[in-house]
Structure formats: C-alpha cells, structure tokens
Amino acid sequence: MSDGTRGNGESDQTDTDEAALSARLQRLGERLARERAARPSDGPAENRVTTASGYARGLRLSSELVAGVVVGAGLGLLVDHWLGTSPWGLVVFLLLGFAAGVLNLARSAAAKN
Amino acid sequence: MHLDPIEQFQIKNIWPMLSMGGHQIAFTNSAVYMLLIVVLVSLLFIGATAPRAIVPGRLQATAEVIYEFTATTLRSSTGPEGMKFLPFVFTLFMFVLAANLIGLIPFSFSVTSQLIVTATLALLVFFIVVIFGFWKNGLHFLKLFVPSGVPWVFLPLIVPIEILSFVSRPVSHSVRLFANMLAGHITLQVFAGFIIMLAGAGVLGIFGAVLPFVMVVILFALELLVALLQAYVFAILTCIYLNDAIHPGH
C-alpha cells in the first residue's frame, strides 16, 4: 500500500521534499477519509481520549502558575545581580511572572484540549 | 533493604570514561537505563512492524494503537501541517513512557526522576519551537508575543508578560514530569519502608504491616496511572508548543 507513494518521495531532491511530503500526506489523508467514511465511526474510542485528557489537564494546570512565578523571581534576581538594582528587579519581575503564570493558567484552562 | 527514600535516585559511575576540565564524564546507571529504554523501544517497534501484516498480530496492533494515538494527538493540536513533527513527538512520547514504566519496576532506576533529563528534553522542545518558528515564519514569529486586538497603550505591559509566559514554558514542562516521578517514587519507598519497620517490631507489628502494604498496592496503581498520564501530558504539551511555532499569533 505504501510502496507506490514511497517511491515518489525518495526520488525527489531535498528542496522539493517539503512539497512531496505534504502531497503524500494529502493523498494519504484523502484515502483515509474515504476509508473512514466507509467504516462505522467508533464512538467509545473518542470518549476514552477525552476522559484521559481531562485527567491530564488537571495535572497540567497545577504547575503552570508556579512556573511563571518561579521564572519571574529568577529573572528578577538575575537582573538585580547584574545591574545592582536590588530589590526593584525582583519586585517588577515577580509581579510580571505572576501575571505570566495566571496568563498560562487561564490559557491552558480555556484550551479545548 | 534500603530504608532511605532518596537513595534510589543516586547516580553511580559504572564506567569512568574520561575527565574533561575537572569534570568526570562517566557511563552511569542513568545512562545504562537510557540506553536500555532506547534499545527496548526500538526492538519493540522493529519487531512489531516487521511482519507488515494487513491483519495485525498482537504486537503489531499495539504498535498501531500507539501510533494512531500519537498521530491523533498531534493532528488535533497542530493540524495537518504539524505532521512532519510526528517522528519527533512519537520518539519523545515513547522515551518518556518507557522511562516512566521501567522506573516502576522495583529496584530499577527511574530516568525521568532526574531533573537534568526532563530539562534537557524540555529545552530540546523549546529550541526546536524557537528555531523552527523563526525559520518558518521569520519575524512574524514575534507576533506570538503581541496578541491581536490589544490597544497599543497596554503593549508595554502585555509584551513582557507574554515573553515571560513563553520563557516559563520549559520550566513547567520539565518540572512537572520530574516532580511527579520523584514524589511518587519517594512516597512508594516511604510506605514500603513502613512495612519493613513494622514487621521487624514483633508479632503485633506483622499484623500492623498489612496496612502500609495495602497502601503500597493502591499507590502503585496510582503511580502507573501517573506514569502513563505524565508521558501523555509531556507529548501533548510538546504538540501545543509546536503549534505556536507553526501558527504564531493567537
């Protein structure tokens, strides 16, 4: 099944590799879509994926906020160390880091998957 | 028996190879396990796909399920353009998954409970995103830091926040995996230590040791779930970050 398409891909030069790959992917996609349409859709598999990603999301959210604050504090301390502006670098970057953490948190909570 | 819960994470030199600038570069137990993971995963997939049967056998069906799962995850977050990253994401997913699962075998070494390993993987993803983003989109990649529809008055505030949020990604990406594996293994070891301590404390202690034993069994099941989910989370976050490199601008 894959032999015919693979032959084309390998004979191409490197600069047309990208185009060849996308063409192959498109052909494969079309063929898969035809196969999928012929087959009855498998509902339970979809459900399994969404429950797993629900757990995964829960685990993910916990560390997003912390990472932002930690990176902000670290950058602030570095800036203070280099420029001797203690404690203003820490204050500013900690606040920015907190905002970045909340932004990360909100973004990954709002994402669909 | 080891009652010290930290001892399992110790790096031991197995074969000191050379020293460079005062640093010793050695073949450690961590390196042995990484090599083992790569060999095992390679053998599994070479063995599974060698028959190329139209009706897959058990091993081939396993490989196909894992492939389908990774491909669906990648396609749903990056679209068809991201499929050229499938080999990368698949390798990363299998490496982390195998490392987590092998680490659960008693007396084995858990590679993903070393921050340096997870940080290396996370930084690899980070730099691929940055380099591919600039190579593919040029300076348009910087639009990632300028959300559309924000009044220009707020930009001096929003852009640093966006940059910080981008820079903090490898931190959360690596620390999440590392901390989960570390905490899980320490908890298991502590409860297993309770069994030994209680069992050594006479007849009553042997009955008492049943309680931490039940706890260890339950925790082990939980750790199995965590091992699978953390590998999945690592892969899906890689997909989400790659999506930013392919389609910058929210």
Q: How is this structure best described in words?
A:
The complex is a heterodimer of chains A (113) and B (250). With 113 residues, chain A is mainly alpha-helical. Chain A has 2 domains: 36 residues; 58 residues. In chain A, 84% of the residues lie in helices and 0% in strands. Chain A contains 4 helices and no strands. Chain A is elongated. Chain B is mainly alpha-helical. Chain B has one domain. In chain B, strand 1 and strand 2 form a beta hairpin. Chain B is built from 8 helices and 2 strands; from the N terminus they run ββαααααααα. Chain B has a two-stranded antiparallel sheet. Chain B starts with 12 loop residues before the first strand and ends with a helix. Chains A and B meet through helix 2, helix 3 and helix 4 of A and helix 2, helix 5, helix 6 and helix 8 of B.
Strand count, sense and closure of the main sheet of chain A? none
- Overall geometric form of chain B: globular
Structural class of chain B: mainly alpha
* H-E order of chain B: EEHHHHHHHH
Backbone structural class of chain A: mainly alpha
Summarize the SSE layout with pairings.
The complex is a heterodimer of chains A (113) and B (250).
Chain A (H helix, E strand, L loop, with lengths): L2 H9 L5 H22 L4 H41 L4 H23 L3
Helix pairs in contact in A: 1-2, 3-4
Chain B lengths: L12 E8 L2 E6 H21 L8 H21 L7 H18 L11 H23 L17 H13 L1 H31 L3 H6 L1 H37 L4
Antiparallel strand pairs in B: 1-2
Offer a concise description of the structure.
Chain A is built from 4 helices and no strands.
Give the tags.
A: 113 residues; 4 helices; elongated; disordered N terminus; B: 250 residues; mainly alpha; two-stranded antiparallel sheet; 2 strands
